[in-house]
Amino acid sequence: MTRAFNGTYRGTSTDERREQRRRRLLDTALEIVGTQGLAALTVRGVCEQAKVGPRFFYESFSDLDALAAALLDEVQTAALDQARGTMIETPGDPETKIRAGVAALIIAMTDDPRRANIAFAQAYGSEALMRMRFDGMRKVAATIIEQTRMLLDIPAGDDTALTALAQLITGGAAELILVWLDGGLKVERPVLIEIVADYVVAMVDRLPGTAAKLR
Predict the structure, then answer these.
(1) Looking at the domain assignment, is residue 6 inside a domain?
(2) 76-89 tens-digit pLDDT
(3) Is 86 part of any domain?
């Protein structure tokens, strides 16, 4: 007998099998949305390709929007974790760390064209994805605030300037990357990274002066 009373089947627990099905659904959604667009994502299609029965789809996701949002969250979180880890591990002065973090974030978001498509282009096709995209941008902004405070001696009470800086960097960089992906900025990725890094460093350098105006 292969099934045990504790829910184990062929050496795999119920929770493990559920997580495996969820993983297959996410991986399949990445392929479909990343190559064909959000409109191509259907419950039937993703279940057939993932080899997951439709009834098991709903044990992990309430609907297609929830699946797409979970996928975008995974893409954003992985890129942000990579950037944060790179900044922590990179030796040198604040500018060196900032440039390394910018490079890590952009590379993580654009190395896989499917992930880049989901993170930047496809997010505009769904209200759920737009909410998740904004949530991701807030997380990036929070990380910028966190890392800036770690790298620089920011006086207490300068939260307004720091928050404004983080939002400007996050929004500006995201839109520039979207233009680049769409072919509107015809430069190689290393040049794109340098442009964004220069922008971030310049903004951080102006932080003390901006903060002083707001006091």
Answers:
(1) no
(2) 999 999 999 999 99
(3) yes
